[in-house]
Amino acid sequence: MKYYPINLHLKNKKIVVIGGGVIAERKLVKLLDTGAEIKIVSPEITENITIMIKEDKIEWKKKLFSHEDILGAFLIVAATNSTAVNRQVFEACNDQQLITIVDDPIRSNFIVPSTLNRGKLTISVSTSGASPGFSKQIVSELASHYDESYENYLDFLADCRLKVQSEIADPTLRRKILKNLLKPIFFDLTKRKFYTDRETLFQRLLNNNGEL
Predict the structure, then answer these.
(1) Share of the chain residues as helix, strand and coil, in percent rounded to the nearest 5
(2) Strand partners of residue 17
(3) For residue 107, how far is the Cα from the chain centroid?
(4) Other beta carbons less than 10 A from residue 15's beta carbon
(5) In sequence order, which residues have a C-beta less than 8 Å from that of residue 131 and are 6 or more positions away?
């Protein structure tokens, strides 16, 4: 089966994580910044999950799973250490809900790829469930190339794009400027933290018909 890669906008969506162990904790960490309404269902939780609850980042239902726990949920993560409970979660879902089961990728209708995050930059790697360990290995290799400077670089490109869209009416010139913004010199200046020089070069693009 081929998976369809997608980035989900989860703000204000209802997400339920079943389980309170280390695996559930790992799943929660990746969900915290999405703006979703997150609820965890488990009789016991880890210390780090306890901290998340105290900080009002997630809601905790201290109980064993029952089918009503996932009513109205957009996305569900079955992350208990019991295959039987995870199966119960699957059977309680309807066809319109997204579910990933940590020990059963076949019944899951989505899987979470290994990811590298650098601010606005997200690089995802998936082996379609064949070898999650190999996905993580590739992400580790990518991390040495796409270092922390890419976070600032993407912020710069995003700001420039907004300015070009608001100030340049000619679509051909707009495309030319955005294309030349990707020339290596801009990332090189970012890497060296020459932000003033970088801004000067961008202004040259704006004032010189997209030419450096």
Answers:
(1) 45, 15, 40
(2) 40, 77
(3) 22
(4) 22
(5) none
How open is the CA angle 8-102-18, to the nearest 5 degrees?
A: 80
pLDDT in tens, 82-125: 999 999 999 999 999 999 999 998 899 999 999 999 999 999 99
What pairing do the DSSP bridges indicate for beta strands 98-101 and 75-78? parallel
User: By C-alpha distance, which of 69, 129, 77, 84 is closest to 98?
Assistant: 77
**Token couple for 31:** 């969900």
Q: What is the helix (H) or strand (E) element at residue 116, kind and residue range?
A: strand 114-118
The first and second tokens of residue 65, run together, are: 């799973």
pLDDT value of residue 128: 86
Mean of per-residue pLDDT scores for the chain: 95
**Buried b / exposed e across 143-160, counting CB within 10 Å, b at 16+?**
eeebeeebbbbbebbeeb
Q: Residue 99's closest CA among 87, 91, 110, 88?
A: 110
Max CA separation in the chain (angstroms): 66
Q: CA quadruple 197, 202, 208, 212: dihedral positive or negative?
A: positive
